[in-house]
Amino acid sequence: MVQEVRYPLSDDFKRIIAGENETVFRMVEDRFSVIIHARLSGLRIEAKGKSADISGALALLDQLKIAAKNGTFISPKYLARLLGEEKSPTKKSAKAFIPAEPIFRNKLGIPVVPKTISQAELVKVCEKNDIIFADGPAGTGKTFLAVAIAVASLENHEVERICLVRPAVEAGESLGYLPGDLKEKIAPYLRPIQDSLAELLPSEKLKKYQEEGQIEVAPLAYMRGRTLKHAFIILDEAQNTTIPQMQMFLTRLGEHSKAIITGDSSQIDLGPKQVSGLAHAIRLLSKVRGIAHISFPPTDVLRHPLVREIVKAYESGGKK
């Protein structure tokens, strides 16, 4: 077994990755039972006992270096989230986590990269599947990442347009009591998708795309009777679709099109006798080639730290 290896790393990247007072390096040491010597050029990684996993430490350092190069802020919190899914990531699993290149650079030039294992899996399955279900709690970055992948596809001329849809379940019969015309009535339900687009694209470019019909944000009901070719389609809040609505949406897919369906099965706003089309579709289509399903765990919540604890509490229902 290898007892010591040298890891090439510039002083600049060493400072970025190490964290304040080298806390990130200390976390790597604890996880993989190694000792990291950083005083000389590069790093010297030494095995610490029989449980040492130098290969795992090297693989993780590779990914931290890639993440830092892509503009990700490396912190103990980031590393803890990265390691949360796997007790002992192997070189193979670590390499699968973060792509070598950003998915997309937002309007400020900041690279958009996966921040959790589940997000990386979503990016990976999009390359080989045309329909992807992404199910998980609010705050795990499902919708934003899906929109980023779609925008990147449009910018790279892989598709001709993006269609972003949401069910307006909460409106129901009360829609007529909201002020304004139909467009103004449904605007609040489409706001989360509009916010993601506004974060990714400069306002003038977004306006141009929308005026030319290359980016369309619409309620699910507008999809009936349409066939979407050469398009990237995203259905958000899919847990609030009924089975017939989900079937209608899935059959809108035309030639050279791709769809990502995101939702949170724990937050269904349908009536008590209605079955969620999201859960039904995941069960029904689980073995169909070309369709993938990614499940985001509560540990992937990227919002305020308390949100993760709230999600866990509600999932457990107060049970100890």
Automatic annotation (TrEMBL):
It is found in: Cytoplasm. Keywords: ATP-binding, Cytoplasm, Nucleotide-binding. InterPro entries: P-loop_NTPase (IPR027417), PhoH (IPR003714), PhoH2-like (IPR051451). SUPFAM superfamilies: P-loop containing nucleoside triphosphate hydrolases. Pfam families: PhoH. Residues 112-315 form the PhoH-like protein domain. It comes from the Bacteria. Belongs to the PhoH family. This is PhoH-like protein.
